[in-house]
Amino acid sequence: EAQVTQNPRYLITVTGKKLTVTCSQNMNHEYMSWYRQDPGLGLRQIYYSMNVEVTDKGDVPEGYKVSRKEKRNFPLILESPSPNQTSLYFCASSLMNTGELFFGEGSRLTVL
Amino acid sequence: GQNIDQPTEMTATEGAIVQINCTYQTSGFNGLFWYQQHAGEAPTFLSYNVLDGLEEKGRFSSFLSRSKGYSYLLLKELQMKDSASYLCAFKNSGGYQKVTFGTGTKLQVIP
User: Fold this and answer.
1) What is the rounded distance in angstroms from the CA atom of residue A21 to the CA atom of residue A40?
2) Which pLDDT score is estimated for B27?
3) What's the confidence (pLDDT) of residue B17?
4) Element at A92 (helix H, strand E)
5) Please, which residues have CB within 8 angstroms of residue A92's CB and are 6 or more apart in sequence?
């Protein structure tokens, strides 16, 4: 089954404790992206990648890192989480020539 | 700059027709998406308009006017399961796949 898989789905952590949210897709998509979704603000892009070893900042990259060592994986790293990073995070992927995004199920992160 | 506007909330009756409008501003435009998002779930793709006009897909239709920076999503024969948020998003022209989302319209279908 074609899908985007994120883990963990739910996480409560404390300020400053490094964490990684994994994202994997099995559709051989070149493009992958991370979004955060907050009430009243919609989906905002954090980072994106157009292919292996090619990543770039989106609209709200501060406090986040990403890597793209393999085509299927695009982890999101929070080196020192803060309460303002409490949010619902979505990973998405697409083929470069279509743009139709396929979303993971989301990861709800709470930073205390 | 870039901007998308859509109503925050709408209410419609089961069996009726509802139109959700979206206006956008961008310097480079390459197409407009509509996504459906049920509460607590991931967005799912509904439609993608590149050219002006109406595209129909079952009970859902999407319209685009590039010159006016305007789109709408038309939902016919509303069902209770259509209660969800509907996200309008445009794809930028250029070398990469930036998709900018609006804040979404929360549609409540009532009996």
Assistant:
1) 24
2) 81
3) 97
4) strand A87-94
5) A4, A32, A33, A34, A35, A101, A102, A103, A104
Cβ neighbours for A26, distance < 8 A, ≥ 6 positions apart? A2, A3, A72
The predicted-structure confidence for A5-37, as pLDDT tens digits, reads as follows 999 999 999 999 999 999 999 999 999 999 999
Amino acid at A78: L
Contact assessment for residue B74 and residue B19, using Cβ atoms and an 8 Å cutoff: yes
pLDDT tens figures, A48-64: 998 999 999 998 999 99
pLDDT averaged over chain A? 94
Residues from chain A contacting residue B45 (CB–CB below 8 Å): 100-102
CA of A84 vs chain B CAs: smallest distance (Å):
19
Amino acid identity, residue A7? N
Give CA separation, A86 vs A89, A107, B45, in Å: 9, 10, 26
Interface test with B, best of A5, A55, A88, A100 (most B CBs within 10 A): A100
For B82, phi and psi rounded to 5 degrees? -80, -10
**CA B104/CA B37 separation, integer angstroms:** 9
DSSP state of B92: P
Query: Comparing C-alpha atoms, which of B1, B50, B48 is closest to residue A59?
Result: B1
Nearest to B101 among A42, A96, A99 (CB): A42
Report the Cα–Cα distance between both ends of chain A, in Å, rounded. Answer: 36
